[in-house]
């Protein structure tokens, strides 16, 4: 059974450009570390401080292996540090979803 991680970010609305740079970096890092990146989604109209990401994996075990690889990846570590230093992410929530099939 595959699983998709839905990440909801609460952003500092005055630092959306920094978050977009952060998201763009993940576009190559996530696939390299084993995630099937569906995409990052920025606010466009309406709420200006919420962004989303969707990443799929074959299983929860594959997700855990990905997380371990991510913590060892130099670009991944640098991007996490960029977010901590920039303080543009105020909160982050993860929900694990499965696709409904017949």
Mean pLDDT: 96
CATH architecture: 2-Layer Sandwich
Number of domains as seen in the coordinates: 1
Indicate the radius of gyration in whole angstroms: 14 Å
Q: What can be said about the biggest beta sheet?
A: 4 strands, antiparallel
CATH class equals: Alpha Beta
Strand-pairing-aware structural class: alpha+beta
**Which consecutive residue ranges, at least 5 long each, have pLDDT under 50?**
none
Write the layout of secondary structure elements.
Layout: E1 3-11, H1 16-32, E2 36-41, E3 50-57, H2 60-72, H3 74-86, E4 89-97
Antiparallel strand pairs: 1-3, 1-4, 2-3
Please supply descriptive tags for the structure shown above:
single chain; 102 residues; alpha+beta; Alpha-Beta Plaits; 4-stranded antiparallel β-sheet; 3 helices; 4 strands; globular
Short description:
With 102 residues, the chain is an alpha+beta fold. It has three helices and four strands. A four-stranded antiparallel sheet has the order 2-3-1-4.
Describe the 3D structure.
With 102 residues, this protein is an alpha+beta fold. The chain is 42% helix and 31% strand. It has helices at residues 16-32, 60-72, 74-86; strands spanning 3-11, 36-41, 50-57, 89-97. A 4-stranded antiparallel beta sheet has the order 2-3-1-4. It is globular, with a radius of gyration of 14 Å. The two termini are 13 Å apart. 15% of the residues are buried. The mean pLDDT is 96.
């Amino acid at each position: 059974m595959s699983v998709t991680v839905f990440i909801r970010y609460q952003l500092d609305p005055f630092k959306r450009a920094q978050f977009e740079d952060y998201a763009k970096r993940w576009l190559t890092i996530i696939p390299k570390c084993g995630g099937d990146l569906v995409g990052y989604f920025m606010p466009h109209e309406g709420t200006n401080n919420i962004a989303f990401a969707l990443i799929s994996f074959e299983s929860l075990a594959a997700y855990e292996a990905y997380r371990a690889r991510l913590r060892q990846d130099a670009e991944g570590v640098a991007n996490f540090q960029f977010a901590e230093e920039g303080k543009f992410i105020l909160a982050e929530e993860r929900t694990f979803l499965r696709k409904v099939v017949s």
